[in-house]
Amino acid sequence: MDSILSHNGSADPSNFLLSICFAFSFFPARFLLDRFLFRRLAIWLLHSKARAIPSRIDEATIVKCSESMWKLTYYATVEICALKITCNEPWFRDTKEYFRGWPHQELRFPVTLFYMCQCGFYMYSIAALLMWETRRKDFAVMMSHHVITVILIGYSYITRFFRIGMIILALHDASDVFLEGAKVFKYSGKELRASVFFGLFAVSWLVLRLIFFPFWVIRATSYELVKFLDLSLAYDKLVYYVFNTMLLMLLVFHIYWWILIYSMIMRQLRNRGRVGEDIRSDSEDDE
């Protein structure tokens, strides 16, 4: 554990013991927050709606609203932490700095802690998706996304690509904040706020995941990284192609979900600005 507690440590694989601790800690954290805060808040919000809701639909909505509150709390917290860690770093704004000095870049303790927390959260999310979270039509895609994310976090940490890894995590969590906020407002009947947050979510998804991610991040891993690798060596070639393949797989997921987002945008326009139900829902009852 010495490498974890040091301010400037190495990318020691044993640090992932901490991610397992994080993963297990999310189970009681979710249970306690659900029982004593999120569920009560969801019931209060739903019962403040103007129209009555049948008890069967109401219970399903309470569960999904509580689920969104949990995710909103997590994503907002880690996004703030990610920006605090990275915003003053020279590589936050300059893609050429992502790999400068690699593989001997300084690894600070906050980066290690953030990495282990995120890795633990996605390990927890895999279990949650399998056991109790609302299962939607994109279950297989979501599960694949979580698995690849865990592998990508671990791989980028071990290969010391943690600068670009921090950027990727920060830009992905931003849109999730708006998505979960839109869901909470939608479930509680706040249509205007839901529409605003959904609009912010759609714009952030387009800008961060479909423009910045491929044309800045993947471009950097495709062209800037080559300057620091010898692709005639088997190990360097493996590092290059495995990392970029996983990033491209994430991009495919982004495009798939953008098609669903676009469908919801069209539905919202037809509804004169009212946010439609989650297009991923399996049935009308789930909506």
TrEMBL record:
<dbReference type="GO" id="GO:0050291">
    <property type="term" value="F:sphingosine N-acyltransferase activity"/>
</dbReference>
<keyword id="KW-1133">Transmembrane helix</keyword>
<feature type="transmembrane region" description="Helical">
    <location>
        <begin position="112"/>
        <end position="132"/>
    </location>
</feature>
<keyword id="KW-0472">Membrane</keyword>
<feature type="transmembrane region" description="Helical">
    <location>
        <begin position="16"/>
        <end position="33"/>
    </location>
</feature>
<dbReference type="Pfam" id="PF03798">
    <property type="entry name" value="TRAM_LAG1_CLN8"/>
</dbReference>
<protein>
    <recommendedName>
        <fullName>TLC domain-containing protein</fullName>
    </recommendedName>
</protein>
<keyword id="KW-0812">Transmembrane</keyword>
<feature type="transmembrane region" description="Helical">
    <location>
        <begin position="238"/>
        <end position="262"/>
    </location>
</feature>
<feature type="domain" description="TLC">
    <location>
        <begin position="63"/>
        <end position="270"/>
    </location>
</feature>
<dbReference type="GO" id="GO:0005789">
    <property type="term" value="C:endoplasmic reticulum membrane"/>
</dbReference>
<dbReference type="GO" id="GO:0046513">
    <property type="term" value="P:ceramide biosynthetic process"/>
</dbReference>
<feature type="transmembrane region" description="Helical">
    <location>
        <begin position="139"/>
        <end position="158"/>
    </location>
</feature>
<feature type="transmembrane region" description="Helical">
    <location>
        <begin position="194"/>
        <end position="218"/>
    </location>
</feature>
<dbReference type="InterPro" id="IPR016439">
    <property type="entry name" value="Lag1/Lac1-like"/>
</dbReference>
<dbReference type="InterPro" id="IPR006634">
    <property type="entry name" value="TLC-dom"/>
</dbReference>
